[in-house]
Design brief:
Helix 1 packs across helix 4. The mean pLDDT is about 90. The protein contains five helices and six strands. It has about 160 residues and is of the alpha+beta class. The chain is elongated, with a radius of gyration of 22 Å. The protein has two domains: about 35 residues; about 100 residues.
Length: about 160
Amino acid sequence: MRCPWCGHPEDRVVDSREAQEGQVTRRRRECLACGRRFTTYERVEDVLPQVVKKDGRREPFDRRKIVDGLQRACQKRPVSREQIDELVSAVERRVQELGEREVASHVVGEAVMEKLRALDPVAYVRFASVYRAFTDVGEFMSELEGLARGPGRGST
């Protein structure tokens, strides 16, 4: 690690502590040349795949886009921000565990809907109506009937 003050490449670690609930290691360092101290943060690098959209475009996996969509679906519902974050983290883990460089957007969308269906059925229907782009009331009613039949027996 180069010293931000003098650029010297060698330092010593004075103190190490966990931060952000164990997700980050905070290190206090001292430059061996100028003696000034600085802080570095170490975290595991997330390797997330590219998302292949329906039209063939490729975009980096964007957690923020999923959170935004879920917040809209969960407006005025008894779903906390923590629950949304946990849901998105579970989907993110699932995508990472696939071990692929690219993943189709429908894989991400279906994973989100599966988790959301278990969390809040009304928010699930809201999200599904946008995600699946229902073209008529019949498609919407079909989804509601599948939801009413119970888990695993709907159209998802």
